[in-house]
Design a protein that fits this description.
alpha/beta, Rossmann fold, five-stranded parallel beta sheet, 14 helices, elongated, binds ligand PMT
Length: 424
């Protein structure tokens, strides 16, 4: 239990999911955390300070300009007390205020005043979650290093169905525990996680990111298997998921080599990119990069399983009504990396349309991986060539659902889990 004796400042903002705050406090204290609660002005309409005081065992903080509170534990002391700041539920309005750095109430002031890592668990109507403004705000704050847990999909208080439900309190507590474990491992600090910055991309150089000192090789995008000089076999991978992982790994302090198939998105600044076309090219580039130096290998590319046995040297003419291509199996890059005598930590992806868990677990075992992220690509709004994705992460003895969200935010969550596993 990484949260044992950790000071968790829980911010509650004004949405219907605020009624779950007392239960979340219980889950956090159950994991050993010391919890203090800050209510936003509107949240008191959904949950009473008294109930939160009863479950946390501490005075609930509500007002920025409260002479009594400032004489006791004022906002700066509270900001310093926190080892982590968790906002759950975080409303659309809260995300907007965080994106703009506003400090017009106690909670938003604390966000700016604390050096502690910040986590949010959004909760809102599905249309509000999907709104361009909300997604832009989320992108801004996750790029600054705030970690987003969820939201989940399901029936909402308003009757709508879709993404926007706050994650279950047990899942939020577990994800925070995982994240704190990773931060503790990094800082070597048994008591707190506050030594890790909440601004990894722009933060102080004195504060290393979670992946500082690690060299990560990531594959991304599709491969193209030539048929003749003008035709090829490929798939719909845009490279977005792999590139988001590269961006976030860089932000978390890693040195990144990105081995990329042909894609149409900009190269992330600061990482070494090796452009390839075919699976055989990607295999060669990866094996070379990994043998040079690699602590973690992430196989996100959609590698063609087969290539054309004999690539025609000239354009094939349509002389016949039918044409047969003989395909031969491509090398399995991920399996070959995992089979090296001293393999790096390996994270594979499994893109599946059915029996997702069974196939993903099969690949985890057969390819001898440390971790696998199962991607249900039967859902049209996630996965291939979409801005959003959702994953279920499996290790030999654990599994965790990362619900649908922007691929950048998802990359942060996946890398946080990975960091914790790497250090086990
Ligand atoms: O690029 P996007 O548009 O953002 O889409 C993201 C994605 C859907 C491509 C990504 O999230 C994803 O699921 N990538 C894995 C796609 C895939 O090829 O899965 P697979 O189940 O066929 O392969 C299993 C694993 O083995 C993967 O890690 C794959 O990279 C790896 N592999 C497969 C074949 C091969 N010859 N070599 C490999 O390394």
């Amino acid at each position: 239990m990484a949260l044992q004796s950790v000071n968790v400042l829980l911010g509650v903002t004004g949405g219907i999911a605020a009624y779950k705050a007392p239960d979340l406090v219980r889950k956090l204290t159950g994991l050993g955390a010391n919890v203090r609660v800050v209510l936003s002005p509107s949240s008191a309409a959904f949950v009473t300070p008294l109930s939160l005081q009863a479950v946390s065992g501490n005075i609930v903080h509500q007002h920025l300009l409260d002479p009594e509170a400032e004489a006791g534990m004022g906002h700066i002391e509270l900001a310093r007390w926190a080892d982590v700041l968790l906002i759950a539920p975080a409303t659309a309005h809260c995300l907007a205020k965080l994106a703009h750095g506003m400090a017009d109430d106690l909670l938003t002031t604390l966000v700016l005043a604390t050096p502690a890592p910040i986590f949010i668990a959004p909760a809102m109507n599905q249309q509000m979650w999907a709104a361009a403004a909300t997604q832009a705000n989320l992108k801004t704050i996750t790029e600054r290093g705030i970690t987003c847990f969820g939201p989940a999909s399901g029936e909402q208080a308003c009757g709508d169905i879709g993404y926007g439900r706050m994650l279950e309190t047990v899942d939020i507590a577990q994800m925070l525990d995982e994240a704190v474990a990773a931060l503790k491992a990094l800082s070597g600090n048994e008591k707190t996680a506050a030594t890790a910055t909440n601004e990894p991309s722009e933060g102080s150089q004195d504060t290393p990111g979670l992946l500082a000192g690690k060299h990560i090789v990531i594959t991304a995008g599709p491969t193209r298997e030539a048929i003749d000089p003008v035709r090829y076999i490929s798939n719909h991978s845009s490279g977005k998921m792999g590139y988001c992982l590269a961006v976030q790994a860089l932000a978390m302090g890693a040195e990144v080599t990105l081995v990329s198939g042909p894609v149409d998105i900009p190269v992330p600044m600061g990482c070494k990119v090796i452009q390839v076309q075919s699976a055989v090219d990607m295999h060669a580039a990866v094996m070379h990069a990994v043998r040079q130096s690699c602590d973690i290998f992430i196989a996100c590319a959609a590698v063609a399983d087969y290539r054309v046995a004999d690539i025609a040297s000239q354009k094939i003419k349509k002389d016949n009504d039918e044409m047969t291509l003989t395909l031969v199996k491509n090398p399995d890059i991920l399996a070959d990396v995992a089979a090296l005598p001293s393999p790096p930590f390996t994270l594979g992806f499994a893109a599946e349309t059915h029996d997702v868990e069974r196939y993903a677990r099969g690949k985890l075992t057969r390819k001898k991986l440390n971790m696998i992220a199962a991607n249900d690509v039967s859902q049209p709004d996630i996965g291939f060539n979409q801005n959003d994705n959702a994953l279920t992460v499996f290790t030999a003895d654990a599994q965790m659902v990362l619900p649908k969200q922007d691929k950048l935010a998802l990359a942060t969550q996946l890398l946080t889990i990975l960091t914790n596993q790497v250090r086990k």
